Amino acid sequence: MKKLFIKTYGCQMNVYDSARIADLLTPLGYAAADAPDDADIVVLNTCHIREKAAEKVYSELGRLRRLKEERAEQGGRMLIAVAGCVAQAEGEEIARRQNAVDIVVGPQALHRLPEMIARVERSEGRVLETDFVPDEKFDALPAARADGPAAFLTVQEGCDKFCTFCVVPYTRGAEFSRPVAQIEAEAHRLVEHGVREITLLGQNVNAYCGAGPEGNSWSLARLLHRLAEIEGLERLRYTTSHPRDMNDDLIAAHRDLQKLMPYLHLPVQSGSDRVLEAMNRRHARDHYLRLVDKIRAARSDIALSSDFIVGFPGETDTDFEQTMALVREVKYPQAFSFKYSTRPGTPAAAARKQVPEQAKSERLQALQSLLAEQQADFAKSCEGLSMPVLFEKPGRKTGQAVGRSPYLQPVHVDDAEHLIGEIHDVTITRAMRNSLSGALTAVRPKGMAAA
Q1: Which residues contact 25 (CB under 8 A, 6 or more apart)?
Q2: Where are the alpha helices (DSSP H) in 193-309?
Q3: Same domain for 202 and 156?
Q4: Angle at 262 between CA 337 and CA 373, to 5 degrees
Q5: What average pLDDT score do residues 238-250 get?
Q6: Is residue 105 a contact partner of residue 87, using CB atoms and an 8 Å limit?
Q7: 173 and 275 share one domain
Q8: pTM of this prediction?
């Protein structure tokens, strides 16, 4: 039996792609390896959003090169493949910097990986594939397999927004939406294998406009309504959304669909109109705040998450304070924040007014302190509440299980390991820094939907 080790960097889309790579290679006799040392092929599924992420890949390739040399000295062979967005953006650079790499495959060509492995094994040398053919990719991928009660399902890829800081349009290509029938069939297969929660994925997932059964275009809201009809599927989520594509139908879905969890990731990036314009975000501060009001009017218990970039070229102290003011106004139970880092080939990389590193660090520290305070306040407000938890995996303690609240918080419950794969009500007893603790309050009758 041959062994496969996949290391995944970055977003949930890469997690989904890594699972599909494993699905592709299983029929070829590859089983999962626990570490690269034991693997016959190592795949690095990479992210190109931030500069340090790419450099981590090159550092890992250096370690893998030494493992590959040791394997060769023992008469064996190890293949190294670089997949994902760094492969798409820097294929030739990877080949130049690290000759131990056998395969470079972009995210829209990963379905060709078995053929690429065969070519390398025939001693055809390094193989590079970075074509943009997303419909061919999804047509060629095998049926997705379930690995636990929660699963990702990609419904949309690519981006047409061209934010000036972002490489996604160059690494994932233009926006592409999978057909409704293909998505529905994959969702049914996942549920048949024990999945109770599905998160729909897309770089701009709420820009979804896939072909419906009659050939007409469906919105994400309409797709969510269709998937909510699947018996046995108890929870739906989606990510990542763009404010420009958050329409009234989708907001209404949060009001009308019990299975759609009360959690929405809606990145704003900055609270300054001047910076938003420089980022080419195509929405203003006021537009975002009005969206927040409409969403909360539709679903009062919804929790909002966001992304923030500090130190974007030209950002002043006043611009940054406008971001802080927006955070104070919205109040985020969870958010992600980063210092701006230049990505080669993006318009912002060539901007003249780059913010000094010290200023970036100081602003990030201030923002993260405020966000951490809001996250802690929200977690504290959950103490004493009873909420449905989907148990996903064993905890660190014997008999303990870890699940997710409707708000995506990890919840630790003792004496619940036998409930993995099920949804049960939990009374939250303690809020910790990044998770909650609770105790079982009632056993939910089978077939009852979870709020």
Answers
A1: 4, 41, 113, 114, 117
A2: 220-227, 248-256, 273-279, 285-298
A3: yes
A4: 40
A5: 97
A6: yes
A7: no
A8: 0.87
